[in-house]
Amino acid sequence: MQEVTSTFGLITRVKAGDQEAFTRLFDKYRRRLAVLLHYKMSDQLRIAVEVDDLLQETFLRAFRDIQQFAYRSPGSFLRWLASIADHVVIDAARTQGRLRRDGVMLAFRSRSNPSGPEPRDSHTPSRLMAERQALDGMLARLNTLPSEYRQVILWAKMEGLSTKEMAERLGRSREATALLLHRALKRFRALAKS
Predict the structure, then answer these.
(1) Domain count of the chain?
(2) What value, to the nearest 5°, has the Cα angle with vertex 58 and ends 126 and 116?
(3) CA separation (Å) from 76 to 81, 101, 102, 131, 158?
(4) Which domain range does residue 39 map to?
(5) pLDDT tens across 47-103, in order?
(6) Deepest of 37, 105, 158, 163, by most Cβ within 10 A of its Cβ?
(7) Residue 18: inside a domain, yes or no?
(8) pLDDT for 95-139, tens place per residue?
(9) Assessment of whether the complete model's pTM goes beyond 0.70
(10) 101: domain CATH number?
């Protein structure tokens, strides 16, 4: 049996009604999903909506639908979250499009709308600032990579795709894809040390 701190164990606890387990799942996947959301958003959407708002919405939808999730293998939960994130980004983009046409401002709390509703968050300001700085540093390093390197890192580490799934998307062999990922991660780690 999986230990209770594993994703499987935490999901089992969430399904049984343990809200603390959901908080632990949120903390475990928060940074990876934030990076994934950042790259799924258009430049225009990033101006209008904060990544954190979409992250909150992704986790709210996941919490609402957790009973329908079936754990199949390591990485399946992250792939499920990534598909929810896809829908959240699409919905936010559609909402922004409608609001632009109607001349109405989006109600999310953001730099452009500081009076919008603020989600309940138990993190301290210093912890949030440290998380934000770490996320900004990671995004800066990812942005300096060639797009092909960045894409395989996002697929492997943020969406949890296997080498086989990435190879199919790239139209390459598994070996070539694995080598590409190795080189991308090596360059990414080198940037972290500099």
Answers:
(1) 1
(2) 60
(3) 9, 38, 39, 25, 12
(4) 7-121
(5) 888 888 899 889 889 888 888 888 888 888 888 998 999 999 998 888 877 666 555
(6) 37
(7) yes
(8) 877 666 555 444 445 555 565 555 444 455 656 666 777 778 888
(9) no
(10) 1.10.1740.10
